[in-house]
Structures are given as structure tokens and as C-alpha cells.
Amino acid sequence: MRERLVVTLVTMTVAMLLVFGIIRAYSTANLVEGQQRTAIGQSADLAAVAIAGLGDRPVTTTFLGDLKHDDQTITYVDPDGTTLRTGASSDDDLTATRAIKGGGRVTLSQDPSVTSDRVSDALLPLVVLGLGLAAISAIIGSLLARRFAYPFRRLADDAIRIGDGHFDVDVHHSSIREAQVLGNALRDAAARLDTLVRRERQLAVVASHELRTPITALRLSLEDLTLWPQTPPDVAAELQHSLAEVDRLSGVVTTLLDSGTEHLGATSRLDLAVLAAAAVERWADRARSQGRRLVFGSSEPAWTTVVRAPVDRVLDILIENALQHGTGMITVDVVTVGSHLGLRVTDEGSRAFDTGVFHESPAGAEAGLTDAATHAESLGGFVAVDDHPSTRVVLALPRRARASDR
Questions:
Q1: How far is CA 34 from CA 39, 40, 95, 99, 372, in A?
Q2: CB burial of residue 310 (10 Å; 0-12, 13-18, 19+)
Q3: Which CATH class is domain 268-398?
Q4: Do 246 and 216 meet the contact criterion of CB atoms below 8 Å apart?
Q5: Residue 60: half-sphere exposure toward Cβ, Cα within 13 Å
Q6: Which CATH fold topology does 1-163 show?
Q7: Where would a tag sit more exposed on the chain, N or C end, judged by fewer CB atoms within 10 A?
Q8: pLDDT of residue 405
Q9: pTM reported for the whole predicted model
Q10: Domain-by-domain residue ranges, the chain?
């Protein structure tokens, strides 16, 4: 966009300068040519007066040569028809002929190249000025284009982050009306998408617990019944048929839950250490403003396949919780939790939560931890509190998340 604005502004300026320059060149050429014709006429008048002042004395070529410039030709024709000429002449010369008092005539001519040179000299400042104005317009156009394109470039970056799933991005405001309208539209779209995705994520988690757990329990009960000695063979055969139907129902539920969680943001292979370092950088200024230290405690690569936006969201919630409710230095590092990889946030305050997997906010804690647990479960992971004297909260993620996880 910025390049197009620069090209448009410079093209418009050059076009206007070109039109002005052509008109000015024609007018300047006509003006210079008119001045040269006037000068030739005046020189011819002076030559006629000078020759008439000789009276009876003869006109010589030396005398004629003194009446002209080096780039001129003078021709004298006396009353008898005798012709004297000094200098070279051509048919294209500018000429002026004057009659001499007492008889005869004098003709003064000038090489047209003199006029061309003087036209060029007169147009040179105009050309230099035009080139200077074109260069200035390019610089000004570039600055203006940068200024005009900057709000839209920021909005493009915001739109990319929203497309990656960062619905809480702070969309930039602008004094340009069109950019502000776009920003308002992005804010509205992000808010609506955030609401929809939250509801979908909560529905996926709740449905997973409320559907899969009873189906699993029902299957185990039916399987136990088929193994009881008291169960008649025909009933056991019917129970086996029921087990097949329960398995089919379980497969349908799994398919529906997985297909219903198409993510807004592409799943990609990410290094959790990079995500942790980026989170530390995001929150470092706020930690310093509170007189706290926030450090990254691990540099070993830990790769997993996951959507980045919800992971960033959970990590932000855990760091914000440590800043609000913890004390001392905060450390973010990468750990291994059984078959999962974990991002651990540790502060030096005493443990305020019960150990184990986190599902709901404890009394007095921020409701954001429940949101973090919901995000983690939708990714196929969980949020857990370590059994440690200080507060250690871990976001555990599978080493390879489901393709449909958000």
C-alpha cells in the first residue's frame, strides 16, 4: 500500500511538472526567439545609421566587421549594386534588412544555433527546478505514504493475530477515519469470535466429560454382566450386541466432539521453550513495575504440535496470577509431566492451592484459572498444582496434540 501511494503521488507530481514544463518551454522558446529578432533588428538599425554616417567615404569589410558580433553576418549592398559581406550565412539565419539613407541597404543575420543555445540556457534552471521538485515530491510522498499506511499496517498485524486466535489483542486506534472504522470492525469481530470460541471450547470440555464418562461406565457394566456366571447365554449374547452398539455410540460421540472443535488458527509444531521465553518478554515490564523479577529458567527445546494462541493465553493467566497472588521472583520453565510436556510457572510464595489437577477456581482466586483449565483441557492437556512448598502451577500438554484441538 505504501509503495502504491508513493508511486501515485510522485506520478501525479511528475505529470503536473511535465505539463507545466512543456508549456513553459514553448513560451520560453518563443520569448527568447522574439528577443533575438528584436536584438537583430536593433543591430541592423545601428549598422544602417553607422554606414549612412560615412557619407562619401567608402564602406570596407573591416568597417562592416566592426558593426557585428562574431556569431553574426553583415551584408552591405551599395546604390550601384555592389555587395560586401563578412561572416558566413545560411538560409536558416535570423535576418533583418534596413535601407540606408542616401541609398543602399544592409542586412544583418545571426546563426540560429545562438538562439537554440540561449533557449537551452533559459530552460536549464527550469529543468533543474523540475527535477528538484520531483525529488522533493518523492521524499514527501514517501513520508506521507508511510504516515498514511502505518495505521493500516498495524491493523493488518492485529488482524493476523486475531486470525491466529489471539482474540484479546488490543486493536490499535487511529485518527484516520477509515482506519478507525476498520479497527472498530476488528474489535467487534474479535469480541464475537472470542465469545463463540469460549462457548465452543466449554461445550467441548463439558460434553467430553458428560458423554464419554457415562458411556465408558455403561460399557464396563455391560461387560461385567456378560462375564457373570448367573447371566444366561441368550442374555449374554444380547449384552454383547449392546456392547457393540455402545462402542458405536462412543465412536460417534468421539467423532462429533473432534469434528466440532475445528480451531481458528492452524495447528503447528512449536517449541515450548520459545513460547515460554516470549511470555517472559511480554510480562517483563509489568513485573519490573511491581518490583518483581520474571526469568526464563529453561532453554532446552521441547517440541509439541498445538495451536499457539490458547497456549499463550493460559501462560499469560498463570503469570498474571503469580504477579497478583504470589511473592518474590517468578520463574517460567519447561518440564516433563509423565507423557506430557509442561510449562511451569513458579513463584516464591507459599502454596495457596490444593495439589493435583485444577478444574475450578479456589476461594479467593481469580476466575481466570478456571478459564486456563478449560483452555488446557480443550488442547488435550490440563493445569495442575505441584506438591511443593512454593506455588508451582503447570500447564501440561500432550507431546502431539489432536489435529482438531484448539
A1: 9, 10, 12, 22, 87
A2: buried
A3: alpha beta
A4: no
A5: 4
A6: Beta-Lactamase (3.30.450)
A7: N
A8: 40
A9: 0.48
A10: 1-163, 177-259, 268-398
